[in-house]
Amino acid sequence: MKNHLAKQIEKLEKRNLIIDVAANLFSEYGFHEVNMEIVAKKAGIAKGTIYNYFRSKEELYFAINETRLSKLISELEKKFQEQISVLDDLRGFVIHVFMFLLKYNDFFLIFQRTRLKKQQLKSKSLEEKIQRLKDLLEDILREGVEKKIFKDLNTCFASDLILGMIYTAVLRNINRDIRDPDVVKEREELFNLVKDAVIAIPSKINPLNGKTILITRSLGQSKSDIEKLTQLGAEVINLPTLKIVPPTSWKKCDDAIKNLCLYDYVIFTSQNSVEWFLKRLELFESLDELKSKKIISIGSKTESKISDSGFKVFYKPEKFNSESLASELIDFINPNEKVLMPQSEIGNDLIEKELIKYGIEVTRVPVYNVDIPDLEDVADQIKKINEREIDLFVFTSPSTFDNFLKLMKIKIPKTYFDDKLIAAIGPTTKTHIENLGVKVEIEPNQSTIESLINSIIKHFEQ
């Protein structure tokens, strides 16, 4: 079995060698000037051997195009799953295609001949892949138009123009190393030209144009809010510094569910608390019992999660810091009434303490915990952060800040963040960060992601 696997690997390596050698020859001399004997000689294999891999020169020629195009399309599709917004998708497409074609410049020169029909060869599979590449771009443009982020474009025509711009930029840099500072500069200029051509709001009035903003939370339902930043010209890097996992023990939560009839109110402080508590309720077949409780939601995103799950929100406080929130709640929660608070295992007890002062009985139960992501899952984002100048770091909890330090291996936060702009979602996060010697410049009036985003925009508009 092991010997068979080794043979398969050796065969694949030899096939790739033939493709690489042939790509170099075809790009330099053209299709008609190259024959299989020349390819075999350059690859250091017998002429007869090459036919074990490719039946003809035409098949080899198409294999070069199809292999590289398949790789490019696969990488783009994976990249789009990680992107935040349609503008981020456009940036990812333009930059990645440019850098890919520059890296595989032999393939690019062959691809150009095929695309421009200078080589009169037919391959349905190859034509489909060329069309797929264009479709990926056209899908991005169409989504941008529908969301009114992009102008009302003829997406088919615009995608042809943008691809033409990318190919021209590759030709300009064909003999340069992809790490050349001039190449890095031109790829950014290329994207800015494309962006300015399609975006509905001109860059000159975009307060965030050219700014790179790091978000350290999982986007979830906040994606639409984050899109506000990209619509105003920012590049947003998303590094989820928290991984949501089950609590260490379900005992407290399970006990509360078994005695749910004793509680008058249920306070949800986050979307995660809603999601994980409802899952546990479903396990106990107790979802209907929650409908008889007065549900209090902290924040509009939490409110949406509750409503989308089929439950009615009794009250949503106007302010979200613990003291102001407690002063609102005591207006209708009577002493000796019981409140259940499903929350994170590391969630603070500030609301509980404030309510207890007024004789209200509060039970906090862990329904989820937070852990640090595996390094391999965030390696690409960390690479981006190390390569870019970050204009704004955004933290949405003490844990997002602490885990960022761990993931980036930052030992002295004060030194790392010297002269850096920091935004924190609320006073608890701000205090935690500043206790470590790092100054926070941006803090919203309300501890919600919507207010935080609006505060960021206002800061850069000044």
CATH class descriptor of the largest domain = Mainly Alpha
Unreliable stretches covering 5 or more consecutive residues = none
Contiguous helical run count: 21
CATH superfamily of the largest domain: Tetracycline Repressor, domain 2
What share of residues are in beta strands? 5-15%
**Main beta sheet:** 6 strands, mixed
Total beta strand runs: 10
What is the total domain count?
3
Give the N-to-C terminal Cα separation. Answer: 67 Å
> What would CATH call the architecture of the largest domain?
Orthogonal Bundle
What is the overall pLDDT average?
86
The Rg value, from CA coordinates, equals 28 Å
What layout of secondary structure does this protein have?
Layout: H1 2-29, H2 36-43, H3 47-50, H4 57-82, H5 86-103, H6 105-115, H7 124-146, H8 155-172, H9 181-198, E1 212-215, H10 223-231, E2 235-238, E3 243-245, H11 251-258, E4 265-268, H12 271-283, H13 287-290, E5 294-297, H14 300-308, E6 313-315, H15 322-329, E7 338-344, H16 350-356, E8 361-371, H17 379-387, E9 392-395, H18 398-407, H19 413-416, E10 422-424, H20 427-434, H21 449-461
Parallel strand pairs: 1-2, 1-9, 4-5, 4-7, 5-6, 7-8, 9-10
Antiparallel strand pairs: 3-8
Helix pairs in contact: 1-2, 1-4, 1-6, 4-5, 4-7, 5-7, 5-8, 5-9, 7-8, 8-9, 10-21, 12-14, 15-16
